[in-house]
């Protein structure tokens, strides 16, 4: 990922990006929750397919979005492989590795996990990339009536996510300049990556501490606040909210009619 992955992008100027931040948060939450609660591939596949159609219809570019998040796509593939190897084996054997096998049941479970992950990733990234942190703070405080401390912390966290990616790249370049990680095997690279991750965590804690002290010094969250901007709502927000409900209803309804609907606890 590049350092401006969570920074200003074309998605904020899209039709979807112009929606109210609170509405986008609710829509993304509903779609993610709908994908979490089920475990069958049919429902997950319908949700993901309708999400693709819906985002394309509102001018978003889901294919480009998923291509930009290729590390997470690799994580989804490796998770699917792990599920296929570790879950209970049912059905006919498709691949036999001697110590382990992949069956029709384990492959279906792996496919379901990958589709569910994609169905959760797409609305989450669409929300993050198309939402201005200040708009989100205004909506959380004035629409959802959340405490000012929580709202300001969420706003600061969203703004600092992009900085973490920049610091990760800087740490990597500094380590390579000192000869660390060059010519190492897989275990050496894992060790180097763990050290870099620890250094990033230390920097994040220090930055968070400085930010907290600064916000306290300026009186954030100590009393009643006034707001420079009032979040606006339009018919487009209602359309998108209804579309999210329709996506969930169609996916669950079709799967229930086919007899394939299985919830996570079943």
UniProtKB/TrEMBL annotation:
Keyword Membrane: yes
Subcellular location: Membrane
Organism annotation: Rothia dentocariosa
Membrane topology: Multi-pass membrane protein
Spans through the membrane: 15-38, 45-63, 69-87, 107-130, 150-168, 238-265
GO terms under cellular component: plasma membrane
Source taxon at top rank: Bacteria
Alphabetized UniProt keyword annotations: Cell membrane, Membrane, Transmembrane, Transmembrane helix
Signal peptide segment: none
Protein name: Cobalt transporter
Main location: membrane
